[in-house]
Write a structure and sequence with these properties.
The protein is an alpha+beta fold and 561 residues long. It contains 17 helices and 26 strands. The strands form 6 sheets. Strands 16-17-18-19-21-20 form a 6-stranded mixed sheet, with helices on one face. Strands 3-2-1-14-15 form a 5-stranded mixed sheet, with helices on both faces. Strands 4-5-6-8-7 form a 5-stranded mixed β-barrel. The site of zinc ion (ZN) has 6 residues, from loops.
């Protein structure tokens, strides 16, 4: 296998693309968010020590003092070291004292960031703790032999007086791999150490390991062909800092100077777009779907337009083979983890099944997160699991749809129109007004109008009120606002969306140009009459289906798969 790595350094985010045998198989992201300070190491000055709560406040030069306790060491993994620190805080810290601390939790509007003096550097397979003499192993690694093996390695490779905690991903890995991971972390720490004496208090000493360094560490193995990087600064850093690279590897590092952006030049942007879609077309005209549910990923193979010949079994076999290759690649590229179920098209021949399975497994050859792939089940499904080491592409690149809260569907315009009718009747009973203003999405308003505005005339007769319809461009389908218009500005009877269609939390109603009902009294026609005549759709049936936009954005997502 030969590998090529492209690194794109940008002002807001940096990306690395791993290409194996000419195909993009993995993407790494680093998003620069200067607001986020979790993991950052600061030199601070103690501002206050509170013996009662065994905590201290430390000025680190940001708007709020950091909150510091001595108990509780967080390593982002399963091992905790809570009992290591037991001495009273007032014996250890005095006001004005300079301390080195690391942020554990972002500040909130009311609270300062939570911090610790137990510095830790999370690597890929282990966490390095420069100041704690302790070797730990993730609780998820439960075989005693493996735990003992890792502990022994830890004792050998950890610098004197420091410690490591092996993460779940370290299971079964060779000592040299683990040591390479640790070496980079130790190097980072040495850099921080070098800055401590030179820097004044209230200084940030360390942020994160830069992406090019991580990439060099994780991917610069002997089968590497070249690494091309588009930033001169990052290029120089790697040359200077990566002594762990052999001279041969250093020689294959190249600085990209072309005017065309590097990812565009190598066709990576297109591939990324494809890796974010739910449906993926294959060369033959068949396609696969990748869906995420709460419990697992489901991958479905469809033959689509593909017809390889008259032999159905042979055609199906070819589609499945092609799909198996692409599925493996997409799983790596999207960085899917947890349980994955693949529904290939049914095949009769056991030899065909075996070959499809073999192809799928081969697709993960260069994968660092070795998956576990089971045989075809009785129902013809393939089950597999893949380790989670970092966020999936989807988690990095997409947010939950604000219209449907990730459900992929919203209430139909007909349903919302019915809710509005009920709301209007209710409103008319409560308020003695001439007019009621209704703000809603255009589709809902169109639905209420019905053919030739007959729906509205009917509703007005029933309510014995004039209705002012306001299509609100900023409302989503499910949101509406009913406002009775008072003759005199008594108490503005403004009530917002009293029938919330969802029990959804944090659902806000966008502010519309209507400010007070009194103002509207003077210009009641505004925004209403011109709209009445236009855009009345012809055939809206009462049973209009729910709007399904799951094709584009349907993913509900909890990050811990
Ligand atoms: Zn949606």
């Amino acid at each position: 296998m030969n590998r090529k790595i492209l690194v794109n350094i940008g002002p807001y985010e940096s990306r690395a693309a791993i290409i194996e045998n000419g195909k993009l198989v993995e993407l790494l992201y680093e998003i620069q968010d200067s607001e986020k300070i979790v993991g950052c190491i600061y030199k601070g000055r103690v501002a206050n020590v509170v013996a009662g709560t065994q905590s201290a406040f430390v000025d680190i030069g940001i708007h709020k003092d950091a909150y510091l306790t001595l108990t509780g060491v967080e390593t982002n993994d399963d091992e905790d070291l809570k009992d290591i620190f037991r001495s009273p805080i007032q014996d250890q810290l005095k006001v004005g004292q300079e301390v080195i601390l690391q942020i554990l939790k972002e500040p909130t509007p009311t609270k300062g960031p939570r911090s610790t003096m137990t510095i830790s550097f999370p690597g890929r397979y282990l966490v390095f703790m420069p100041k704690v003499d302790h070797v730990g192993v993730s609780r998820k690694i439960n075989q005693d032999r493996e735990r003992d093996r890792l502990r022994a390695i830890g004792k050998r490779i950890a610098p004197k007086g420091s410690g490591v905690v092996f993460r779940t991903a370290s299971e079964g890995l060779e000592e040299s791999v683990l040591k390479a991971d640790l070496d980079l972390l130790v190097k980072m720490w040495r850099k921080v150490e070098g800055k401590i004496a030179k820097s004044p208090p209230r200084t940030m000493l360390h942020r994160d390991i830069p992406l090019p360094m991580k990439v060099a560490r994780d991917f610069f193995t002997d089968d590497i062909e070249e690494m091309i990087i588009d930033s001169e600064e990052a290029y120089k850093t790697i040359i200077e800092d990566c002594e762990f690279l052999s001279p041969l590897q250093r020689a294959s590092l190249e600085l990209y100077k072309d005017k065309t952006p590097i990812f565009e030049k190598f066709g990576i942007e297109k591939e990324i777009e494809r890796a974010l879609a739910r449906k993926i077309w294959l060369d033959s005209g068949s396609y696969i779907f990748i869906d995420k549910t709460e419990a697992m990923y489901c991958i479905d193979v469809n033959s689509g337009r593909f017809s390889g010949g008259s032999d159905l079994e042979e055609t199906v076999f070819k589609v499945n083979l092609e799909a198996a290759r692409e599925i493996a690649r997409q799983i790596r590229l999207r960085n899917l983890s947890g349980m994955i179920i693949i529904d290939f098209i049914d095949m009769e021949a056991p030899s065909h099944r075996a070959q499809v399975l073999k192809t799928l497994r081969e697709g993960f050859k260069g994968d660092r997160n070795k998956p576990n792939i089971l045989d075809f089940s009785e129902l013809g499904l393939v089950q597999m699991t893949r380790r989670r080491t970092s966020a999936s592409l989807d988690e990095i690149r997409k947010a939950i749809c604000p219209c449907c809260q990730g459900a992929g569907k919203t209430l139909s315009a007909a349903t919302v129109a019915n809710q509005i009718r009920a709301g209007l009747i209710d409103e008319a009973k409560r308020y003695q007004t001439d007019r009621i203003i209704l703000n809603a999405h255009r589709m809902v308003i169109d639905h209420l109008r019905g053919k030739d505005n007959s729906g509205i005339r009917e509703l007005e007769n029933q309510l014995r009120r004039k209705l002012i319809l306001k299509p609100a461009s900023s409302f989503d389908i499910e949101t509406f606002k009913i406002e009775p218009v008072m003759e005199r500005p008594v108490k503005p009877g403004r009530r917002q969306n009293e029938r919330q269609p969802h029990a959804a939390q944090n659902r806000e109603i966008a502010a519309e140009p209507i400010e007070t009902t009194a103002e509207h009294d003077e210009t009641p026609e505004q925004g209403m009459l011109p709209g009445l005549a236009e855009n009345v759709p012809e055939n809206i049936s009462e049973s209009a289906p729910a709007i399904d936009h799951s094709e584009n954005h349907g993913e509900k997502d909890e990050s811990n798969a």
